Inverse folding.
């Protein structure tokens, strides 16, 4: 996982609430055998609509999603996070996230940032007025800034620590390699193995 | 204070424990199949990681494989890609794989025990919810998600919060002709599909001790259907006898050391559970489901329930919706429900004892006109054993389809599916809408009920066959 300290980029104003994981990526896109390449499934049902905000020329190359409340509800599919990341998003801002989505995003390295709905509203207005607006999300300082707007956000210390250091769960566990090896050395010899030397 | 079986096994596997964080648990055996592993291997590749313990990992192909023409290339391109991907990954990461066509291929939860890889006191995981099956040996066994599959591949451990424990004590003995499948269907109907949520359940008591290993696996298999994290049964002589001599079982002095340890894996007399349920085995009768979740079941002798039978408004609504989906009318005797397809198989009831029981009941009868019977062994070994005993001939003579090994009609993923509105009596574990094919209607049943139903064409028990000309 890449380290995340601070990110600056342009943003997509998604004026919708309750964007569930089926809307983020429909089930038919889950048959793939890779962990990447899900960008074509992102918001698939809406992408056919030329009026859909992500289809507009001024919002190409965005890396921050500014969404309405209750983002990421529904199934636990990890593909939702993968699709957002594959599309190029580094950060999602919303006033409320579904727990599982937030957990999954932390695991995969997508920063989901909860901010007050009035901050979201201000960001939407600012971005819509000028799509080239640069938004900065600073994980170290726990702030979101755009123009003269600065807002603080909450994130638990453990997730922040992991993202700042680019540690996924596997990375953290491998940090305890010594404990695992010590445990393995004590395992009884009669425990079964699937391969024999 | 003493410990429960689950606590003993859990504690033996804690690699690292820190206040306020989940335990880091060592995993003794990681089972893999084609559907939930590709992204995990891809993740390893992207991060430049390897499989830490290929020697504690075993892969097989089951969900996507056809049960006919298994020597031909897989026809469905998506299924073929998943299977091919597993083969490539296994080769690249050095994982032992039993592919379609191999003598050890089969449903992952049938293969582990028959190889002797499933043993008491182990931690066993697989990207499949019915991993709970292996708990029958006194192992902690549960299903995991794809990220966790990757975590286990890379580290041979999992971060897990310790679940609560529950005891389900089954006193007395099951009536003649009543199986462990009826017992678990009965239990789920009593507790609801969420009754086990958050618990590792230990099944105990006389009726459980009297079960064969295969019967115990059926019970533990369906633990997940009432929401339990895992199901377990304390190992005893039945367990040891089953394992002894299996290909991967310990031998000689190792066997003695293993058994000595396994004998300690019982709940201490002074241990306490977070919850206890007691049932009387004598109350259990042949049980069948009428609805679209495994908790919607009644005795075979009962009638299709009515929404009016339920006080709770959400139960009323659920019943209404289930009856509509199932195309059933409240008040119809279950015995009059006509079935199009009978499926004997799956990781719940696709082992050799199941096939023997089915053959014993079907022998000398014919599958009813307008009904088809699919008999699908859980593994190639089960298939070969059945053929050695001539069971295949019994099925074929009765007019059944005798198939190759795999998950088959348990789920609508491979070519064996129900047509819309087609009705099945199935020995599998899930009757969700569309589980066996889009629009398909599933009644979960035991093996004797399945066999008798195939002969009569309506939901039946073997006792009903006495009126049919043999
Ligand atoms: S037989 Fe059914 S329940 Fe068992 S592993 Fe296969 S699909 Fe899952």
């Amino acid at each position: 996982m890449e380290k995340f300290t601070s990110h600056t980029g342009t943003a997509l104003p998604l004026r919708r609430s309750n964007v569930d994981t089926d809307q983020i990526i429909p089930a038919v896109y889950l048959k793939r055998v890779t962990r990447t390449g899900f960008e074509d499934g992102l918001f698939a049902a809406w992408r056919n609509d030329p009026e859909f905000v992500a289809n507009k020329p001024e919002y190409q190359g965005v890396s921050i999603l500014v969404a309405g409340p209750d983002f990421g509800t529904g199934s636990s599919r990890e593909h939702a996070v993968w699709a957002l990341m594959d599309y190029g998003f580094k950060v999602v801002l919303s006033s409320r996230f579904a727990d599982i989505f937030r957990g999954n995003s932390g695991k995969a390295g997508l920063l989901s940032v909860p901010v007050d709905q009035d901050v979201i509203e201000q960001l939407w207005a600012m971005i819509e007025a000028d799509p080239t607006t640069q938004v900065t999300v600073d994980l170290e300082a726990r702030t979101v800034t755009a123009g003269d707007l600065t807002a603080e956000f909450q994130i638990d210390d453990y997730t922040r620590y992991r993202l700042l250091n680019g540690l996924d769960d596997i990375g953290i566990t491998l940090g305890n390699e010594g404990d695992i090896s010590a445990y393995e050395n004590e395992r009884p010899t009669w425990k079964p193995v699937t391969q024999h030397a | 204070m003493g410990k429960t079986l689950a606590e003993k096994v859990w504690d033996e596997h804690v690699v690292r424990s820190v206040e306020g964080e989940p335990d880091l648990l060592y995993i003794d055996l990681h089972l893999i199949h084609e559907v939930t592993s590709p992204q995990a291997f891809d993740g390893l590749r992207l991060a430049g990681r390897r499989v830490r313990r290929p020697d504690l990992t075993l892969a097989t192909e089951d969900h996507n494989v056809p049960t006919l023409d298994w020597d031909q290339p897989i026809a469905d391109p998506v299924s073929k890609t998943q299977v091919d991907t597993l083969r490539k990954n296994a080769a690249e990461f050095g994982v032992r794989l039993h592919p379609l066509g191999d003598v050890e291929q089969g449903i992952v939860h049938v293969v582990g025990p028959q190889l002797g890889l499933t043993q008491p006191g182990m931690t066993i995981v697989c990207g499949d919810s019915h991993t709970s099956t292996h708990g029958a040996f006194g192992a902690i066994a549960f299903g995991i998600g794809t990220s966790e599959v990757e975590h286990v591949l890379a580290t041979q451990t999992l971060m897990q919060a310790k679940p609560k424990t529950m005891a389900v004590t089954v006193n007395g003995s099951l009536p003649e002709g009543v199986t462990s499948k009826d017992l678990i269907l009965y239990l789920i109907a009593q507790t609801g599909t969420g009754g086990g949520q958050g618990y590792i359940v230990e099944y105990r008591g006389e009726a459980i001790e009297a079960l064969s290993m295969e019967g115990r696996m059926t019970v533990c298999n369906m633990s997940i259907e009432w929401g339990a994290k895992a199901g377990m049964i304390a190992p005893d002589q039945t367990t040891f006898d089953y394992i002894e001599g299996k290909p991967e079982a310990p031998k000689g002095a190792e066997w003695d050391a293993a058994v000595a340890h396994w004998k300690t894996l019982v709940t201490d007399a002074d241990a306490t559970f977070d919850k206890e349920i007691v049932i009387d085995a004598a109350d259990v009768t042949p049980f069948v489901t009428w609805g679209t979740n495994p908790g919607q079941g009644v005795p075979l002798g009962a009638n299709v329930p009515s929404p009016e039978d339920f006080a709770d408004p959400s139960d009323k609504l659920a019943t209404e919706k289930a009856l509509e989906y199932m195309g059933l009318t409240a008040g119809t005797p279950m015995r009059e429900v006509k079935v199009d397809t009978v499926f004997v198989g799956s990781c719940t009831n696709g082992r050799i004892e199941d096939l023997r029981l089915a053959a014993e009941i079907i022998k000398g009868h014919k599958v009813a006109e307008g009904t088809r019977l699919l008999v699908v062994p859980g593994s190639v070994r089960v298939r070969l054993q059945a053929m050695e005993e001539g069971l295949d001939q019994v099925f074929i003579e009765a007019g059944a389809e005798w198939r190759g090994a795999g998950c088959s009609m348990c789920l609508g993923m491979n070519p064996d599916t129900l047509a819309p509105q087609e009705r099945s009596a199935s020995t599998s574990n899930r009757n969700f809408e569309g589980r066996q094919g889009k629009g398909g209607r599933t009644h979960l049943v035991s093996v004797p009920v399945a066999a008798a139903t195939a002969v009569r064409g309506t939901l039946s028990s073997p006792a009903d066959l006495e009126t049919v000309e043999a």
The two ends of chain B are 59 Å apart (CA to CA). Chain B has a mean pLDDT of 95. The pocket of iron/sulfur cluster is lined by residues B 62-63, 107, 109, 128, 130, 346-347, 407, 410-411, 428-429 (CB under 6 Å). Chain B touches chain A through 46 residues (CB under 8 Å).
